Amino acid sequence: MTPENDQKEPDHSCRPDDTGRSFMNTIASSSRWLFLLTVIGSALISAALFVYGFGFTILLLFESFSSVEFSLESMKSLMAGSIQIIDLFLVATVFYIVALGFYELFIAKAPLPGWLKICDLDDLKVKLLGLVVIAFSVVLLGAALTWDGTSDILALGLATSAGIIAIGFYLWVKH
Predict the structure, then answer these.
(1) For residue 133, how many other CB atoms are within 10 A of its CB?
(2) Which of 11, 52, 135, 148 has the most beta carbons within 10 angstroms of its beta carbon?
(3) Mean local confidence (pLDDT), 52-57
(4) What is the mean pLDDT of residues 163-173?
């Protein structure tokens, strides 16, 4: 062997293979588009539910005050409808928070309100589970306000309580 042949290409066997890294970088940058679809879809559902809730509010108020009858039954009907509207707005808020949370976590910084701090998926889950507990409570309140004495409200109360206890236990174990 001549000294000229000793100057072969340097040995790259100790360097990590970068082919997988570029593939993963491509997947990671492409996933922004998937999360953008998630954000847009969640925001559209949220907006639709808010608009529907507003329309339902106007309709409920019109129906409630168009009749001259002020009775206990019409008041109960107004209260039950109002509770359902609040529940609808809570669900719309959940979708709004999901949209903001996914945007914040996977796309870019979002202009979040001060009470909504989302640093990771656990923060998003905690916010959502808190809203689920409130929604459970609103549903139970609506059932209690419109209870006619014939249906089995105890089963609904126990099921709702079990769900709230399970969420509370999960949050307690997690933190």
Answers:
(1) 17
(2) 135
(3) 96
(4) 92
